[in-house]
Amino acid sequence: MTGLKIDALTNNASKKPLTVDTVDIKQYLLNCQNRVNHVIETHLPTRALSTTLQEAIRYATLNAGKRIRPALIYATTQALGGDLNHADPAACAVELIHSFSLVHDDLPAMDNDDLRRGKPTCHIAYDEATAILVGDALQSLAFEVLAAEPCHSTPNEKCRLAMIRTLATAIGPMGMAAGQAIDLACEGKTITLSQLETMHALKTGELIRASVRLGALSAGCHDPKILHQLDEFAANMGTAFQVQDDILDIIGDTNVIGKRAGADAALGKATYPALLGLQNAQEKAQTLHQHALEALAFFDHKADPLRHLSNYIITRTY
Amino acid sequence: MTGLKIDALTNNASKKPLTVDTVDIKQYLLNCQNRVNHVIETHLPTRALSTTLQEAIRYATLNAGKRIRPALIYATTQALGGDLNHADPAACAVELIHSFSLVHDDLPAMDNDDLRRGKPTCHIAYDEATAILVGDALQSLAFEVLAAEPCHSTPNEKCRLAMIRTLATAIGPMGMAAGQAIDLACEGKTITLSQLETMHALKTGELIRASVRLGALSAGCHDPKILHQLDEFAANMGTAFQVQDDILDIIGDTNVIGKRAGADAALGKATYPALLGLQNAQEKAQTLHQHALEALAFFDHKADPLRHLSNYIITRTY
């Protein structure tokens, strides 16, 4: 893990550049977590119009989330030599969207989960109505963050509009929402590998691809060839992410993964290990990771964080 | 109702200008409905990734909604001499947001309503999970519409970003979502008139004020004095709208208002007639309407549609 420079990455409120030259990917992720947590904190409401809603929003966002999507944004911006300050709004917005999707997916009418990131899910800690409103408000807040008045340290209007378009398309009726609808419709049914891949490409893949794209936009990149290679990377890595998620649902420990192990099987959900067998699923994750790396073949050392993130995604234990 | 010119308003797909010189407000609203329905139709997903979600989205949006918020946008744009083509994205986006809020507010965990716009609510016609996803997807779609690639007939990037900011702020954790949270928290409790006003200012008022503001942005207006007067108009008219809504919940006919009459009382919700008495509530609506008109005192005849809409809002029977 030597050679992974993140000297441009900052990890505290004053945004002082990190001076370490060599870190492992866990340290890199930790730095991204610290950075995006600080950005999220500055955007959460402070005046208490509804104390319950405000508390529940903080509960659903400021927690032990891995912040993989913000890390992908920062790492993509770095890969293109961009300014990480320009990536902050997108990193924050994507994590707010991810948090909103988890809160809604966990609802009784959806996946009915009671544990998330090692704590009771939002509707258990508060109530269903509050959890619905938390998700709704987090989605609005994500777009508010991206649409904030540009200043010297943020991307220009044209770029921000492209970011909003990218994010909205990724999560809307032709993106994440459709994926969740298909997932629910497939519960307890026998589906093919191809159908499973389509569902995941929408449900989790679109937001991961959007994250990489937002990282590129944050760096001011508009080169179609580079954007295509990054999208190839993101598509493969995004599928690998889901394969590993399914594997962890089987071999993972509830205390480690922070959500209820075996939840997929309990809901009669199709998973990669269920369709392919555990070993083949593990091999598939490895193959997808290799394809992701190949897509970055022509990128220099600045793309190392992206490469290491892809490896982390298929080797993580939570 | 003479003198209400809407010659710039179009009402069909070809956007042919209407040539009528004088119409009543119901015809004006009908024209706005036709116009915004066409715009909404062009933005709804056509490729069926999830047939159920797609159907449910159409069910929740293409219905007998009054389209008062789009009408306010068009009327404000007209009041400032703006181009109605520039107002189409905002009119569409606001109605998508309004539809999303109704679908979520009707959920069992929220107001648990079974009738809306004369039809079974979305979670009754489909199911709860679908209704949650419909709301989520409609919110994303609204921002996607506002962030669409600008063309010659649409506002520029700076203006669109201001629109997104306006809309996101109005519905987020310091706006509509907070209003709904306060509304739920107050169920069955005795609250003061001031608390009721605060709740409604957030729950319905913010989106109405945002509509008028979006109409002004669509017309390219940035004059703080004009924006202030329009906001005064919107704040008074928005409160009048809610007072009339509460009155209709008591004196309205379920078959006419299209939602279950008496629903507020059944949930133990505070209303203006409950706190003030029916007659005082009716007088309050009238007074608010007068204040709304006063805020428009220095606007010329082009603001007549806005004036008539304010009157319609306190005299409507559904």
What structural class do the secondary elements of chain A suggest?
A: mainly alpha
> What is the tally of beta strands of chain A?
2
Instruction: Report the C-alpha radius of gyration of chain A, rounded.
Output: 19 Å
- Most extensive interface between two protein chains, with residue counts: A-B, 56 and 56 residues
Note the gap between the termini of chain A: 20 Å
Measured by DSSP, the beta-strand proportion of chain A falls in under 5%
Q: How many H/I helices of chain A?
A: 15
State the share of residues found in helices of chain A, binned by percent.
55-70%
Identify the quaternary structure here: homodimer
Low-confidence stretches of chain A: 1-23
Q: Can you list the strand order of the major beta sheet of chain A?
A: 1-2
Overall, the morphology of chain A is globular
Largest sheet of chain A: 2 strands, antiparallel
Topology of chain A as a string of helices (H) and strands (E): HHHHEEHHHHHHHHHHH
Mean pLDDT of chain A comes to 88
